[in-house]
Amino acid sequence: MTVSPRLPEGEKIAQFPAPPRGAGNCAADHDGAADSREPRVPAAEAAEAAEAAEAKASRPDRPSVTELRLSAFAAHRGAGFPLGPLSLLRGPSGSGKSSALRAYEALARLGGGAELGEVFPDPAACVPERARPDVQRRRGFRIGCTADGPEGPVRLDVAVQAEPRLRIVGERLTAGGRTLLETALRDPARRAVQAAWHTAGSSPVTRAPLPDDRLGTALLPLRVAGRTDGQRQVLAAAQQMVVALRSVFVCDPQPRSMRADVPLGAGRLLRGCDNLAAVLWRTRAECGRRHGLLVDAVRAGCAGPVHDVLAEPGTGGAGGTVRAWLDRGDGLRTPLGRLGDGELRYLALALVLLTGPGVLEVDLAGEVPAALQTLTVLVDGFDRDLDARQREGLVRLAARMCERGHIRLVGAVSDASWAAGVDGVTVVDLGP
């Protein structure tokens, strides 16, 4: 399936409007409207309840990001990217594929509680080159996403001021047409934003300051008591968004770094796959079934016969290092250092798809059962250095793994015609 980026309503992004000081915010309008409605007959209530129960039963158990939105971010101006379990961002060089993946990673890190300065060390690079500052010399951008899950679609939109001072100047969390959290910058001299979140108790909203260098949605579990139905709705929506965002593994295998002996270490794969040999040492011993699937995949994507993929202690003299090999099955072993760049990238990406969060260097939501989490893999240059056979084999492997629901993949490619015949692939066209 091929789709084009969606253009939202507008792209003015300085900041969100300040939450109103009066009672006409969030739940207040809903409560007032409820008083004036006609009483409902039991049959209508029963039908509505049955429809709501059916809709809830059809929602996915695992929260996942289903749309990425970028406004005045790098090369993107008011773009929305629908994301399926396996999505390929297609476009020529300069079309914004890499910046879209960076925005996704930024949201994931903010959802995990990272400070804004850690996520955007060079924020000015995220602002379009021709973007002009306002009268107060401010420039910024907006990023956002939609996470689907047990609570239905939940939207998060974040307005970031890049200049003159990096800060979050607005954030909005919405679900079911209701604003659950809204923040806005009231006093530029303070390092805080004014926040208002849905309460639906004796007071329709609760107001309090939040720091301007962290995502308010990620802080809500520390600030919301959960005593009213409204508060519990806020907490459920915030948790769904955070769980959908946090478990992200950014992967860009670097063949040059994968050829040397590596220390054993903790056996968690790094984003550049530099420690591939150490991870193979661990995974081969821990799960024979998954290792067998990896061998099958490598056999389909590497030249020559492949009987096994293994790691053994290095021969460099000092202990504590390992080296990876291909066992050719006839007494001959080929060190991974002799493989081509395409073979090494193919092997590394196949390993990523066939392992789990416990093997990859990712930030897990430890308070949520693993069965309710989805790992999202971000790969820039998914098809880089791969030949036609390797591309097709890898995308078919990714489609099979993503179909199970515990893993999703968003990859950037220059051309996706080779994936046209693979079921389950969503191609997002960023081309001119």
Task: Please tell me about this protein's structure.
With 432 residues, the protein is an alpha/beta fold. It is 29% helix and 25% strand. The strands form three sheets. An eight-stranded antiparallel beta sheet has the order 3-2-5-6-7-8-9-10, with helices on one face. A six-stranded parallel beta sheet has the order 1-18-4-17-16-11, with helices on both faces. Strands 12, 13, 14 and 15 form a four-stranded antiparallel beta sheet that branches. Helix 5 packs across helix 6 (229-246) and helix 9 (341-354) runs parallel beside helix 10 (388-403). The protein is elongated. The two termini are 18 Å apart. The model is unreliable at 8-39 (pLDDT under 50).
Oligomeric status:
single chain
Largest sheet: 8 strands, antiparallel
State the end-to-end CA separation. Answer: 18 Å
- What sort of overall outline do the alpha carbons produce when their principal axes are compared? elongated
SS-derived structural category = alpha/beta
Helical fraction equals 25-40%
* Low confidence ranges: 8-39
Please report which band the strand proportion falls in: under 5%, 5-15%, 15-25%, 25-35%, 35-45% or over 45%. 25-35%
Q: Nearest-angstrom radius of gyration?
A: 24 Å
- Tell me the total number of β-strands: 18
Task: Strand order, main sheet: write it out.
Answer: 3-2-5-6-7-8-9-10
Mean pLDDT: 85
How do the SSEs run, as a string of H and E?
EHHEEEHHEEEEEEHHEEHHEEEHEHEE
Instruction: List the total number of helices.
Output: 10
